[in-house]
């Protein structure tokens, strides 16, 4: 018994010391390499657990004697399977993080980078799920009863698959939609979208739902299948640069050319403008006002929103100070008053009625009068 205890303690101590030394070396290398830094951060704990379990299994197999030995080996084997799955998932995460670190998204045109980030993020979640399922299956296969049950279930796999598909139709639909979104390039992380009449940026994409960070710091959570079934606006589908409009309803006396020059002067003095588009057009001229539309451009949606506000404020201030007459006005004209007359008294010399006093009018009166009225007219005459 003493020998078994010493063997157990010694093997565990050796495993802990070995993993600790390797961890220190990896940490030193990690100061110069992002890959080793990720290994030191994510893989240390699962590696330590795996090493300790291997040492325990070795000690039980070599030095232990008794009826409890098979049960102990079975329990340690199950724990070793789970710890190995943990370590494998951690290594996959480290590899994916190292790949993401090489692709920068903090550049002006980051469409390709955001696409790769979206795909790798979803692949990471898929790999973790797959590793977890395989680990659970491996644990179940360590039980003889589970192996026999698994053999019998294979015969009815088609029925079970159909039942499972019907029961998890919504979940599986969202999972497949998430995979399709990742590789169809329809939606990416940090895309600026308009969904449910809300403007926001895609913050996270999972296998079952998408998180949209709205402009007022709210989060809109939608199932991934929503983006395959419902139309939505993607403002950064091909590039991050956008065009925006500023519309003003002004008086007909507005100096359009001066307004055009003033807008260009305002944009040239702003660091929000990317220098691509500066257009002023009269897009409507009906009623009491003319509608003037200013078209501006910026490198991304956030800058465009601020630029539109800056342009609108500048033009309104310039019109108030330089051309107040161009602001919206409602004109009212006093009409000359005329003397009221009796509408039943005909105006001499006028022919303003279809059924009037003229000979032609009298003929129409007789033609369009009823039989009673015609008899009355003949009796009058």
Structure description:
With 381 residues, the protein is of the alpha+beta class. Helices cover 58% and strands 14% of the residues. It has helices at residues 2-30, 34-42, 44-63, 68-101, 111-141, 144-155, 157-167, 169-184, 226-229, 256-268, 301-322, 359-367, 371-380, and strands at 192-195, 198-205, 209-214, 219-223, 233-234, 242-250, 278-286, 289-298. A 5-stranded antiparallel β-sheet has the order 4-3-2-1-5. A 3-stranded antiparallel β-sheet has the order 6-8-7, covered by helices on one side. β7 and β8 form a beta hairpin. α10 (256-268) crosses α11. The radius of gyration is 41 Å and the shape is elongated. Mean pLDDT is 77; it is low at 153-157 and 347-352.
Which labels suit this protein?
58% helix, elongated, 13 helices, five-stranded antiparallel beta sheet, 381 residues, alpha+beta
Low-confidence stretches: 153-157, 347-352
Number of separate helices: 13
The overall strand count is 8
Oligomer: single chain
Rg, alpha carbons: 41 Å
Largest sheet: 5 strands, antiparallel
Mean pLDDT across residues: 77
Strand ordering within the main sheet = 4-3-2-1-5
Strand content range: 5-15%
Amino- and carboxy-terminal Cα gap:
145 Å
Order of helices and strands: HHHHHHHHEEEEHEEHEEHHH
Please tell me what the overall shape is: elongated
């Amino acid at each position: 018994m003493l020998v078994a205890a010493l063997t157990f303690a010694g093997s565990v101590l050796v495993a802990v010391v070995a993993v600790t030394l390797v961890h220190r070396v990896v940490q030193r290398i990690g100061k110069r390499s992002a890959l080793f830094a990720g290994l030191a951060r994510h893989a240390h704990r699962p590696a330590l657990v795996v090493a300790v379990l291997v040492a325990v299994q070795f000690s039980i197999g070599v030095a232990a004697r008794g009826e409890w030995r098979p049960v102990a080996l079975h329990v340690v084997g199950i724990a070793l399977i789970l710890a190995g799955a943990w370590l494998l998932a951690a290594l996959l995460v480290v590899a994916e993080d190292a790949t993401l670190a090489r692709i920068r998204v903090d550049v002006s045109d980051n469409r390709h980078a955001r696409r790769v980030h979206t795909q790798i993020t979803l692949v990471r979640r898929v790999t973790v799920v797959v590793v977890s399922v395989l680990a659970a299956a491996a644990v179940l296969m360590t039980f003889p009863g589970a192996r026999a049950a698994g053999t019998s279930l294979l015969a009815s796999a088609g029925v079970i698959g159909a039942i499972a598909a019907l029961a998890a139709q919504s979940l599986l639909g969202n999972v497949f939609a998430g995979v399709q979104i990742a590789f169809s390039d329809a939606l990416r992380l940090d895309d600026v979208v308009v969904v449910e009449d809300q403007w926001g940026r895609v913050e996270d994409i999972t296998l079952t739902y998408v998180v949209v960070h709205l402009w007022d710091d709210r989060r809109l959570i939608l199932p991934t299948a929503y983006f395959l079934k419902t139309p939505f606006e993607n403002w950064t589908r091909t590039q991050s640069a956008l065009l925006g409009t500023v519309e003003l309803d002004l008086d007909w006396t507005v100096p359009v050319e001066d307004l055009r020059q003033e807008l260009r002067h305002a944009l040239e003095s702003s660091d929000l403008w990317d220098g691509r588009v500066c257009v002023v057009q009269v897009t409507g001229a009906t009623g009491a006002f003319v509608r003037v539309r200013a078209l501006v451009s910026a490198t991304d949606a956030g800058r465009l929103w601020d630029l539109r506000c800056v342009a609108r404020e500048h033009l309104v201030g310039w019109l108030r100070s330089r051309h107040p007459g161009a602001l919206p006005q409602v004109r009212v004209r006093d009409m000359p008053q005329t003397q009221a007359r009796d509408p039943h008294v005909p105006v001499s010399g006028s022919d303003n009625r279809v059924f009037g006093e003229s000979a032609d009018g009298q003929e129409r009166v007789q033609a369009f009068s009823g039989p009673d009225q015609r008899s009355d007219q003949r009796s009058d005459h």
